Amino acid sequence: MLIYLFTAAFIYYTIWILIMPFVDGMNPTQKFFLDREWAIVVPVSLMLFGICLVGTFISLVMIKSQRKTHKT
Which residues are listed as membrane-spanning (predicted)? Predict the structure, then answer.
């Protein structure tokens, strides 16, 4: 089920980035897509959030392993 969600998101983003800039602004299909500046803001925000999650996970693992070495 999750693969369908990611596939739909990929297709939506691909159409939004590669096709919609060449479609006339008055075309009715333009209302299904956000403004073009969000095409950069959304992926960058998701990437920063993912990097923060990975950094937090690595930091917690390093802190826990350091505590174990001090106990022994």
Answer: 5-23, 38-63
Total domains present in the chain: 2
- State how far the alpha carbon of 51 is from the alpha carbons of 23, 39, 41, 57, 63, in Å: 34, 19, 15, 10, 18
| Residue span of the structural domain in which 21 resides | 1-33
- 16 contacts 33 by C-beta, under 8 angstroms: yes
Residue that is written with structure tokens 């602004």 in the block: 25
Give the separation between CA 72 and CA 63, rounded to whole angstroms: 15
Same domain, 47 and 68: yes
